[in-house]
Amino acid sequence: MDAVQQANSGHPGTPMALAPVVYCLWQRFLRFDPNDPIWANRDRFVLSNGHASMLLYSLLHLTGVKAVNAKYEQLGEPSVTLDDIKRFRQLDSKCPGHPEYRWTSGVETTTGPLGQGVATSVGMAIAGQWKAQHFNRPSFELFNYNVYALCGDGCMMEGISHEAASIAGHLKLANLCWIYDNNHITIEGHTDLTFSDDVGTRFLAYGWNIVRVSDANNLDMLERAFQTFEQTRDRPTLIIVDSHIGYGAPHKHDTSAAHGEPLGEDEIRLTKRNYGWPEDAKFLVPNGVPEHFQKNLGQRGHSLRQEWMQTFDEYNAKYPELADQLYKMLHRQLPDNWDSNLPTFAADAKGLAGRDVSAKVLNAIAPQIPWLIGGSADLTPSTKTRLTFDGAGDFSEGDRSGRNFHFGIREHAMAAILNGLSLSKVRPYGSGFFIFSDYCRPSIRLSALMEIPVIYIFTHDSIGVGEDGPTHQPVEQLASLRAIPGLITLRPADANEVAEAWRTIIQLQHQPAVLVLSRQALPTLNRTRYAAASGLAKGAYILADAESGQPDVLLLATGSEVSLCIEAYEQLKTEGIKARVVSMPSWELFEQQSQEYRDSVIPPSITARVCVEQASTFGWGEYVGSRGGRIVMHTFGASAPLKELQQKFGFTPDKIIAAAKAQLT
């Protein structure tokens, strides 16, 4: 109450109502060492209703959680100090408005967009079971952690939670427990305005175990509920906790205000009086409270972690190869020579589809990186993301060792699950059609916000999809993803650029990547005639140049349009027009290069420029200027064969030549 009041911003109600729930969980059950909040086998606690962030910050402070830095090194300082709490929602406080991963140690994932936390927790639970199957050996149970996610009515309403709960039930993730705060309040008022679901029956239909706690203040009932979860080993568990939001003074309490606004000084004073608390004391932590938490949670977590570290030392002696894998995985390192089998591709006018090349490259890399796992939203035959080598297998209810995942037609949950997998330190990828990146976008944004190296593979990248028409032809998606800070988007031009894109992506440690691939075949460029595809690592590079190195006009393109620019370049050359073709597979990587390099590729002195991309024009002004030629999409696509679409929308060498000449007049 004090923190929210001092900030004059935030949500006091839910943290107050659920304090007994998290007290019971953390003190009596959670296997977590405050001195090492990144211990690999810790239980995970996710606050999905992230607006209740003061609940988590209070826990982190009172339990004495220690901070780690970006390199996962122990600092030994408190993760959340009382001064941080006093500066709740203020600049540089470790207590921002919603919990943020990598900012506050002890926060397992960034939450706030409702439903994201519970969906991400499914990925954490999957990762726990995959790691147990991959690393555990007789007498060496390295992984057996549980995942707890606290959620509310908002999470239950959001569509992503339905997708995530469905797949969790299908996979029978018994290490997953959602705690549903059934308080019947949202920002607009009582939930009966919009929500009359029988949540328990719905989750029974998903295949979950349902436990009900009729009073959030009854610690014995809560304890029995958590014990039931621990004893249920054939399905996930939903604990439905009935609470009354806020717990302000009983004679004066506005539930809607408690949900989203400070209570006010008078209400706080009355509430403290109701609790028998000193009315005028602010940010009071009575003597003995930290010691009380240390006696239970702290000692239990410390002992479990010490036992685990000793077990790992013995494991390292007996299974050194697996121990080395685990160390590298946890530190986001790569095995030696992981790219030794990366293929190269000979020049071929017919070429290969980007998705087909990606399949070859992925299956060359994945055997070298045993924790590289993933799948698609029911589109593996189309996205070509199946791991086909011996032993790859399918992750399923009956086999937790498989590296191929089937997410079903659940793009949004898939992307959040990928975040949960990545937060658990495996290296995940997920795939779908590029148009359906729209369904993934909220979770992709959180990947970038959390700086975790999730890999998104999207095929069918343009109007080249053809007859499927505009509902399946992405136009604005490239611009949308390029707008996300910290996300690396790559649209390679041919087979060798696809291979180099994978080489670049795999080495990312703190940035998610989107790989955008074609369905149709792309000519494999002759790299003895044109520049090496390794230029992709810099985001953009000179693919073909005027013999003098002093071009008159620049042709800038990505993906399938690069080969069209090469054709135009060769024709212009015969006409004595000096052109330069710049392949620009990743604007983000290009912007990371020095100004000197960027000016060498796109010289400021050359203003005659044409960009060619089967996507929205948005963003190209940065590179071609206000007067540059643009062969791009100004509308949605159409249903027709590829060649007819290229003619209709101007994606032909002739149109590129005409645009280049127009720039020179």
What is the count of structural domains? 3
Question: Could you give me the name of the CATH homologous superfamily of the largest domain?
Answer: Thiamin diphosphate (ThDP)-binding fold, Pyr/PP domains
Q: How many distinct helices?
A: 25
Q: How confident is the prediction overall: mean pLDDT?
A: 94
Strand segment count: 22
**Helix-and-strand structural type:** alpha/beta
Q: What is the CATH class of the largest domain?
A: Alpha Beta
What is the makeup of the main sheet?
6 strands, parallel
Give start-end ranges of low-pLDDT stretches: 247-258
Q: Report strand order across the widest sheet.
A: 12-11-13-14-16-15
Head-to-tail CA distance between termini: 69 Å
What's the Cα radius of gyration? 27 Å
Q: Can you characterise this structure?
A:
There is one protein chain. By secondary structure, the chain is of the alpha/beta class. It folds into three domains: 2-306, Thiamin diphosphate (ThDP)-binding fold, Pyr/PP domains (Rossmann fold, 3-Layer(aba) Sandwich), CATH 3.40.50; 348-523, Thiamin diphosphate (ThDP)-binding fold, Pyr/PP domains (Rossmann fold, 3-Layer(aba) Sandwich); 536-663, 3-Layer(aba) Sandwich (Rossmann fold). 40% of the residues lie in helices and 15% in strands. It has 25 helices and 22 strands. The strands form six sheets. It has a six-stranded parallel sheet, sandwiched between helices. Helix 19 links the parallel strand 15 (488-490) and strand 16. Helix 2 (13-28) packs across helix 3, helix 7 crosses helix 16 (411-423) and helix 12 (289-318) packs across helix 13 (320-330). It is elongated and about 90 Å long. The N and C termini lie far apart (69 Å). Mean pLDDT is 94; it is low at 247-258.
